[in-house]
Amino acid sequence: MASYNYTPADFKSDQEVRWCPGCGDHAILNAVQRALPEIADATDTPHNLFTFISGIGCSSRFIYYMKTFGFHTIHGRANAVATGVKTANPRLSVWVATGDGDSLAIGGNHFIHAIRRNVNLNVILFNNEIYGLTKGQYSPTSKLGKITKTSPYGTVEKPFTPGELVIGAKGTFFARSIDAEVNLTKECLVEAAKHQGMSVTECLQNCVIFNDKTHAAFAADKATRAEHTITLRHGQKMTFGANNEKGLVFENMKLKVVTIGEDGYTLDQVLTHDAHEKDTTLHTMLAAMKYPDYPVALGVIRCVEDDTVYDQAVERQVEEVFRRTLEDGGPRVKPHAQHMYTYLTAVALYDSADPDALAQLKKLKKRREFKLSLHGWMEFRIAAVDLSNGEITVNRAGKALAKDLKRLTDRIISANQIGEEKTQ
């Protein structure tokens, strides 16, 4: 057994797990906690940089059971908040725990645009084809004709297939697993974490109360899964069945299930999975396969690298803008709010030249306890700062703002002193 710097226990909180007995969420939680020690070593991520974000739903209780940083947000907004977290601090390993109702209904726009932007997030999409927390309404993935509390005569809507949605939104990573397949889920999550860009791992999960056995036709037990699912691995033949006697071939512009050795089909004709192929055609077909016409595809279906990763691109852009403004003779626009604070507050104290206040400002700057965003003034060049020695040159516009800014600065310094007293 491999040895890692952390153990699954390091990622388990002391909170009582309050999902229903038999809920598939328990198995997914187990898979995540087993995956994180390997992920931490593979990505060189210390424990304190893991962060879990959730929206609303049964799956969104996930963060309470993880001994990591976490943010329980509002319905449908997990991916939006996670985008902000990752962009603000790219060092974090950011994970999103969300459900089919949370991310595919009210959060649909946030979901597809996070995918389109290719934010470096790891999304775990719990798909039980129902709203569980609100007691059994149909969701965007509920099967056509499904009878629920909000569709007493059966739904008249065709459901989303999450894999098609992800790939259609220019997704670079999509994997699928089943709650009972803990080792496969772990394998998918490790690959997701290594991927640069947004990863989506769909976990087909059973809700024993409101949608029991929704995946049972192809996932009820190991024997059923062997016959009706296909686990894809990059570079390996697309075979399935109890003895791997079946395979997928491509004929007449579509996939076809064949039995190897029958009707002239040989193993050589069976497709080899290429998860790294940039063209989306075959990946979309694989993600869209439905029982009983096809086996349901599991494993990493798509994993391609893209030149643009949103949070990394933003970070490079900020650094480039900062560099160019310094080369142009001074910071007309300061991308980092703490630098903006440094020279604006210095301008505010220009006329008074209060040495005690200036010393306090230097202390605040060093400790980085304040970030003040003053977007309305960023287009005015009111001062230039030499960051090497802190010397400030103020122009006429800067002096004109001094009185108002002096009052603002006094309030900030006062608030900081109060805060220090409370923490002592």
Descriptive keywords:
alpha/beta, 16% strand, disordered C terminus
Task: Give the secondary structure arrangement, pairings included.
Elements: H1 25-42, E1 50-54, E2 69-72, H2 78-88, E3 93-99, H3 100-106, H4 108-117, E4 122-127, H5 162-168, E5 173-178, H6 182-194, E6 199-204, H7 216-219, H8 222-228, E7 229-232, E8 239-240, E9 246-251, E10 254-259, H9 281-288, E11 296-303, H10 310-327, H11 337-348, H12 355-367, E12 383-385, E13 392-394, H13 396-400, H14 402-423
Parallel strand pairs: 1-2, 1-3, 3-4, 4-6, 5-6, 7-11
Antiparallel strand pairs: 5-11, 8-9, 9-10, 12-13
Q: How is the main sheet built?
A: 8 strands, mixed
* Number of E-state strands: 13
Overall geometry comes to globular
Helix content: 25-40%
What quaternary form is this? Answer: single chain
Give the termini separation.
47 Å
User: Strand percentage, roughly?
Assistant: 15-25%
Residue windows where pLDDT falls under 50 for at least 5 positions: 330-354, 364-390, 418-424
User: What is the N-to-C order of secondary-structure elements (H for helix, E for strand)?
Assistant: HEEHEHHEHEHEHHEEEEHEHHHEEHH
- The strand order across the widest sheet is 2-1-3-4-6-5-11-7
* Radius of gyration from CA coordinates: 27 Å
Helix vs. strand class: alpha/beta
Number of helices: 14
Mean pLDDT, as a whole number? 84
